[in-house]
Amino acid sequence: MLDLNSQLSQVISIAPVALTDGTEDGAAASLSDNHSAVVTFTSGVVTDGTHAVIVEESVDGTTFTTVADADLHFNGTDTTITDLDFAAADDGVSRSVGYKGSKGTIRASITTASSTTGAVMSAMIILGDEKQAGGSSIIS
User: Fold this and answer.
1) Is residue 51 within 8 Å of 121, Cβ to Cβ?
2) Would you give the end-to-end CA distance of the chain in angstroms?
3) Domain containing 69 — which CATH number?
4) Which residue range forms the structural domain that includes residue 9?
5) pLDDT tens for each residue of 75-103
6) For residue 109, what pLDDT is reported?
7) Which of 29, 39, 58, 77 is the most buried if burial means most Cβ atoms within 10 Å?
């Protein structure tokens, strides 16, 4: 049996933070050593407002654009990134989306609107399927 933990690494893109109106852009994760990535958004207490989550990508690690839904892998009934948004009473919820685009860097971003108290949220990027010499995968 493969040990999954030794096959993954994590980047805290957005550390737990209290969000009110505005945008919180997370720290970036380089995909240069991995074939796959998942971005997980997690809420603490969501009191009010809307909290739109997006995944952004970049070629140079400086200029970021929103990842198209076609370059994301959704689970269950989710079909667009807006299906992952958070609203009041979405307390203690985690929502994940896979990245299948071709850019070398990604980050999480959360835009909060119509809030008074807002929400406590975070985002983590989980990197997997590490590249080996020659670009092959260690997972077959």
Assistant:
1) yes
2) 13
3) 2.60.120.380
4) 5-131
5) 989 999 999 999 998 999 999 999 999 99
6) 98
7) 39
Q: Which of 40, 10, 13, 20 has the alpha carbon at shortest distance from 116?
A: 20
Quote the CA–CA distance of 91 and 47 in Å, as a whole number.
8
| pLDDT < 50 stretches in the chain | 136-140
Q: Name the token pair of 19.
A: 């969000």
Backbone angles phi, psi at 128, to 5 degrees: -145, 180
Q: Is residue 138 part of a domain?
A: no
| Average pLDDT across the chain, whole number | 91
